[in-house]
Structure formats: C-alpha cells, structure tokens
Amino acid sequence: MRLRTWLGGTVGLASLAAAYLYTHRPRLVESVAPLANVQDALGGVEPTPVLAGLGALLTLYAALRAWRPFQQSRTPAEGSAAARFAAYRERPPEFVYGDDRTRTAAAMDDTVADAVAGSPDALTTTRAAFRSTAVAVLELDDGVDDADAAVAQGSWTDDRVAAAFLADDASYPLLSRLRSWVDPAAARERRVERALAAIEERRERDE
What residue ranges are annotated as transmembrane (predicted)? Predict the structure, then answer.
C-alpha cells in the first residue's frame, strides 16, 4: 500500500472520529487543544459537517486506491484534458482554417502531462496557454468588455476551480486544496480538466 493511500485512510478515519467527538463528546473536544482550535482554523465554520465530509472523502479515496491503484500515463488518454487541449491548440476557435493546414500539438501534450506530473515550468506554460485560449473565446462574446480582466479576476466562469486555475490570484475552494494535499497530481489533473471544460462550455454558449 502506498504512503499516500495509507495517509489518506488514516486522516480520513481521524476526521470521522473528530466529527463524532464534536457531535457526541463536545466537552472532551474542549479539553483537547488541537480539536478545540479546529473551528477557528475553519474560519468559524461548523466543523462537524466539514470533518465528516472530509473523512468520508479521504476514506473512500484510500479504499479506491487500495483496491485499484491509479496509474498515470505520459500519453494523454482519448477524451482527457490533455487530448482535448491538444485539439484546441491545433485549431484555436478564433481562427479560420484551410484544409491544407496542419499543426502539431505533440509538444503541448507533453507539457500538459508534465504539468500534471508536477513540473512548475510546465504548469506555468499550461496555465498561460489555457488562459490565452480562454481570452480568445471570451473575445468572441460581445457582452464581455475586457476578456483579459475577466480571466484574471475569475469572473468569466461560475466554476471556482477553473476560475482559480487561470486567475491572477489562485484562491482555490477548500475541497480543492484538500485534494491537492492528499494527491497533488490528481488535484492538478482535476484543475486542468475543470478549466478546459469551462472554456468549452463558454465557447459553446457563445456560438
């Protein structure tokens, strides 16, 4: 069993135990400093549902990992974010193409794969490429006054994960940050997927 699987399961069970204590043994919680400070750390949010949800998520994650370990391939799978983005890079929506033109996106495939694997430079390149594509899509919408600003501020989509991935201030939702802590590669891939899905959804809406 991999360390992440073991760690995810351990933290998940600990979170479920903490949620139980908050519900049924509140006095005991008050006497244990780390538990008593959880609510402050969550910004005043009621800790029981957060801990219960986190515990269930991590326990399920660990069970799935233990049952069938996830495998990552350097070659983008058909229908994956990397494969779909390769198609975007090959034929960006803001241009008109002739049948005699062919562009390769093999290098971008590798860049997205490297970004998911954890390369900071590849992640920066991927974000910049996604961002330029999002701006190009928004510029087709007459209702958007400043496409660059909309992407930078994260106001171009209702998907908070996609917005944070391309925004100047990458403030991800709590659940996304937890996923990043438990499985950074899976979290990065999810962010790439969500950003591309948001771009596709916006393009279809504006057509």
Answer: 47-64
